[in-house]
Amino acid sequence: MSSPTPDLLSIAHSLADAAAAQSMRYFRTPLDIITKADESPVTLADRAAETAMREILAARVAADGIFGEEHGLERLDAERVWVLDPIDGTRSFITGSPLWGTLIGVLQGSHVVLGMVDMPVLKERWIGQAGRGATRDGQPVHASGCTEVAKARIVTTSPDIFAPADWQAFDRLSRQCAMRRFGGDCYGYAQLAGGTIDLVVETGLQPYDYLGPAGVIEAAGGVITDWQGQPLGLASDGRVIAAATPELHRQAMAILAAQA
């Protein structure tokens, strides 16, 4: 597996800075809200932030691929692909909640070699680099050592993201945990990398929702896959389970898969 070079990290910082400069201009201001085909809201801020990110990539790594939420796909057969979500948690953004972030993942082949979760309002930047560990604002972080569902703290963004059968599976799992919480969008994945949340289980996600966080969680010692335990990639089905330890991950997957 190729490790990210300092240049990649420098570019990722530049992307996050550029996105924040755009998105913070619009945060807690009146916005024109458009409903996309998947019924998620998109704002002027999303589009302006991703445009700024793409301009940096065009100037610095023009041959790289891009998988972005707002402006589509480019060169997905490239050796390296940048996966961008300028504002993850648009509903949080438009309702004035600070728990939205910018997600950046760098795919080298099928591996995430760098992941970033940037939280502009909180002024926290979570980074994971393959083989180099994870940090929050430059300080090392690590997933908790939780190995038992009964002791786990679990989070998901909202019950509304689940189809009925998937909700039944999540409800079955989460009621066996020590604590369950809702909300937070991408911040739940950062919390898992930082050791204060032990499980994140979601459905209906896109690659730009999970590949950036995957890079942070794996570098922090956690595990993140689809519900069948398969590695996440551009073609995953959008059902994601992240856990602090392999043992917890196996237990949680078994409960999700159990027949009602």
Counted up, domains total 2
| C-alpha end-to-end distance | 40 Å
Q: Gyration radius, to the nearest Å?
A: 17 Å
The major pleated sheet works out as: 8 strands, mixed
Share of helix, binned? 25-40%
CATH architecture of the largest domain: 2-Layer Sandwich
Question: What is the helix/strand order?
Answer: HEEHEEEHEEEEEEHEHEHEEH
Q: What is the approximate shape?
A: globular
Textual characterization of the structure:
The chain is built from seven helices and 15 strands. The strands form three sheets. Strands 4-3-5-6-7-8-9-10 form an eight-stranded mixed β-sheet, sandwiched between helices. A five-stranded mixed β-sheet has the order 12-11-13-15-14, sandwiched between helices. The protein has helices at 6-26, 44-60, 90-94, 164-174, 187-194, 207-219, 246-257; strands spanning 33-35, 41-43, 65-68, 72-74, 80-88, 101-108, 111-119, 124-129, 133-136, 139-141, 153-156, 179-182, 199-202, 223-226, 240-243. The model has no long low-confidence stretch (mean pLDDT 93). Helix 1 (6-26) runs antiparallel to helix 2 (44-60) and helix 5 (187-194) runs parallel beside helix 6 (207-219). The termini are far apart. It is globular, with a radius of gyration of 17 Å. Helices cover 33% and strands 28% of the residues.
